[in-house]
Amino acid sequence: MFHTHTPPEYLTSDAITGNVVHCFSTRHGGVSSGYLSSLNLGVHRGDDWKNVYENYRRLGAAVGFTPEQTVFTHQTHTDLVARVGAGDRGYGLFREVEPERDGIYTNEPGVALVCFSADCTPILLHDPVRHAAAAVHAGWRGTAKGIAARCVEAMSRDFGTDPADLQAAIGPCIGPCCFETGPEVRDAMLSSLGEEAAQFIRQEGEKFFPDLKQLNALWLRRSGVKTIDISRDCTRCQPDRFWSHRLTGQARGSLAAIIMLK
User: Fold this and answer.
1) What CA–CA distance (Å, rounded) separates 179 from 208?
2) Which residues pair with 135 in a beta bridge?
3) CA R_g for the chain
4) pLDDT tens digit sequence for 145-166
5) Distance in angstroms (rounded) separating the CA atoms of residues 257 and 85
6) Fold assignment, 2-174+225-261
7) Three-class SS of residue 171?
8) In whole angstroms, how far apart are CA 103 and each of 54, 71, 82?
9) Which pLDDT tens digit goes with each residue over 128-140?
10) pTM exceeds 0.70
11) Cα-based distances in Å from 241 to 64, 132, 253
């Protein structure tokens, strides 16, 4: 189950427990203005950097991290994941992230992993046994490529994570109520996941409405993850609370999902 906290407004999941802090941000509680109002967490959305920093400071003070501890993804809708550590802190907020990586993972405390969304699916993973964590951005292309599974594989390889120990939280994203696509998205999901994916893709005439949360959960279950919490929120349905690229295009801020080992 997901819970709302204020101020600033953010969500947490009951599934993620132990010596870790995490959050899924909303639009509320920051200092940005205009179409970025108010808790914009993206540095490439046209915002003043000082506003973005203050937004991270406010959110971090509530959740339990500092802006200086953050490490960002560099999202290009791939299935690439990268291991990061204390030496990477500051990449994204204070200096540019160059390598493409739609997922990042670590076993080092004090490293606040940050991935972004504005309709795409944010996924946080926590291994309380091996003390490791991950933040994953899964757009429909990344979902079709199985980026969630790639991250589980990487944590198992590098840290000895048993997927059955993992705690997973799938945050707010565009829901099957609003994610209208052509057959190319349906075909990509069926190609990678097989016919089991069809139950999570509703068809209306020539249009298809995939459930990205359930499709990512399917990848996680197939990887051996047993504890999976799924947000009910659709970003497109609640423009006053979340940003939606489908609704406003580039005139938007960025939501963030953040996790940090204590």
Assistant:
1) 8
2) 104, 124
3) 17
4) 999 999 999 999 999 999 999 9
5) 18
6) CNF1/YfiH-like putative cysteine hydrolases (3.60.140)
7) coil
8) 25, 11, 6
9) 999 999 999 999 9
10) yes
11) 22, 30, 12
